[in-house]
Specification:
- By secondary structure, the chain is α+β, with helices and mostly antiparallel strands.
- It has 2 domains: 51 residues; 110 residues, Domain of unknown function DUF5300 (Immunoglobulin-like), CATH 2.60.40.
- The chain is 36% helix and 39% strand.
- The strands form 2 sheets. Strands 4-1-7-8 form a 4-stranded mixed sheet. Strands 3-2-5-6 form a 4-stranded antiparallel sheet, with no helix packed on it.
- The longest helix is centred in the first third of the chain and has 49 residues.
- The radius of gyration is 31 Å and the shape is rod-shaped.
């Protein structure tokens, strides 16, 4: 009989400890659940942004004598990308290739892109392009193009334009 009394007392103590533990754990679980829901929402927002990238490409339509050394891109006054070209990269561009200079996220709104190059003959030129970033994906092409005169063939112009999603850069 004494054994049953000790056992029942122990069970009651165990049940009360379990109830106390549930009461102290329950608010913690609720807080974790709330944090989980907030993180899930943030992940969905980030996922939507990732699905709508912003890309900048470079193409080259110049005279054979033109040798591109570097290209620099600034976005809203901040240096975004600087690239120094090697022989293989220059050859690929001269054969009609396009180089992806930047791919990332950009907040919607008005922006200013500045691009300039330097060549082996100490030629340099640049251009500024103002655009509005929409909520969808968007691409910009920077094109170095030769002009009609002999001088402009050696020192190409920098043309910057928005590229439609259906148009391929080449």
């Amino acid at each position: 009989m004494r054994f049953l009394r000790v056992l029942s007392t122990s069970l009651l103590m165990l049940i009360s400890l379990i109830c106390l533990a549930e009461q102290s754990i329950n608010p913690e679980l609720q807080a974790l659940k709330q944090q989980s829901l907030l993180l899930d929402r943030d992940l969905l927002v980030l996922e939507e942004k990732i699905k709508q990238p912003f890309n900048i490409y470079l193409s080259l339509r110049t005279d054979a004598k033109f040798v591109l050394e570097t290209i620099t891109i600034k976005l809203d006054g901040e240096e975004l990308h600087v690239h120094k070209y090697n022989k293989k990269e220059r050859l690929a561009l001269k054969k009609g290739g396009a180089q992806l200079l930047f791919s990332g996220l950009l907040s919607p709104g008005s922006h200013t892109l500045i691009a300039y190059y330097r060549s082996n003959k100490d030629y340099q030129a640049g251009s500024e392009f103002n655009f509005d970033k929409s909520n969808g994906s968007q691409s910009i092409e920077i094109s170095l193009r030769k002009g009609e005169s002999k001088e402009s063939r050696l020192q190409p112009k920098v043309l910057i334009e928005e590229v439609s999603p259906l148009k391929q850069v080449n």
